[in-house]
Amino acid sequence: MRNDYQHNLTRLYILKVSHWFMLTMPIVVLFYKDNGLNMSQVFILQAIYSISIVALEIPSGYFADVLGRKNSLIAGSILGFAGFLIYSLSFGFTGFVFAEIILGFGQSMVSGADSAILYDSLIDSNREKDYLKHEGRITSIGNFAEAFAGILGGLLAGLSLRYPYYSQTLVAFIGIPAAFTLIEPKVSQVKLGLGWKDIMDIVKFSLIKNQRLRWNIIYSSVVGTSTLAMAWFVQPWFIRANLPVSLYGITWTILNLSVGITAFYAYKIELKFGKVTTAASFTIILAMGFIVSGWITSLWGLIFILLFYLARGVATPILKDNINRITPSNMRATILSVRNFIIRILFALLAPFYGWAIDSLSLRDALTIAGLVFIMLAGVSFFFFRKTGNLND
What we know:
Elements: H1 2-20, H2 28-34, H3 39-67, H4 69-88, H5 93-110, H6 113-124, H7 131-159, H8 163-173, H9 175-180, H10 196-209, H11 211-240, H12 248-264, H13 266-273, H14 275-295, H15 302-325, H16 332-360, H17 363-387
Helix pairs in contact: 1-6, 1-7, 3-4, 3-5, 3-16, 4-5, 4-6, 4-8, 6-16, 7-12, 7-15, 10-11, 11-14, 11-15, 11-16, 11-17, 12-15, 13-14, 13-15, 14-15, 14-17, 16-17
């Protein structure tokens, strides 16, 4: 049991790095613009990516519960490699759409299955109480990987904006052998029935029958959507603030290191300040990050973007832990996929509007609108999240 747990933990670290060592992210908007895209098309591409994830999100989580989390992670790793290979060989909007669809399908196979196999590996070793600590560390490793990739990606982009995409294809490949060598936890071998009715039964259980789980998922999804949206606002903000392109990589690195640091200590932060104070604090900071960074056009606004990223690091592992604690093992990947499904649906609906707002109004107006949308959705969901007892344990 102990060896299986350590064995899987190591491979989950490798998988996290293969998905988060994103050489392309610091320069992706510059790459799109170099290939003739405007900001509306950039956000449309990300909406397409989200819709691609949505198309398979819940079925893929169910696939992981029925046919194994390992098999789901293998499929996701292969599709991730294929998506970046297509990206590196494409030169226009149509090719990028195809690549985003493949990457979206791959991400849907990974999301939920990775956290589920971690939690069930810990159950096999009677260490499930350590989940928040390990989820925080894996999240931290992912953000450290993305941070250091930012520096390397910036250097590669100095030679050619296409070099980060060639290199990203090689990085994505390392996840394939890591996925193939995972060990399926024994607790997850208690399988569900195979069919759409069974999938819908789980969706009804998580979003209708179980009130506590419902608001846990909805609140977590609203927060997840906000952090995803900010990731795509950051580079337009860099451009507006006249940040030198040579500093994109290091700035991206600092932001992601901040997420990694707070994610690593998320469980200690929650223990020290309590669940209510911690959740309320990161909700307020996320809202403030949108609005204040929108109105400050100088580089001083980076302080509020940094605060946003610090809050994101605390929020992600804590909210996942809340869901895992009240989720049955045999439907864990499916329920985590319900959360990711909602995040992507919300982002797919909002992203084209945010892109239009940047092009037609201003970045300030777009960020202000995003902040107000978050305040409205987070305010309602946090109220019911707390009311249903999610902060009492």
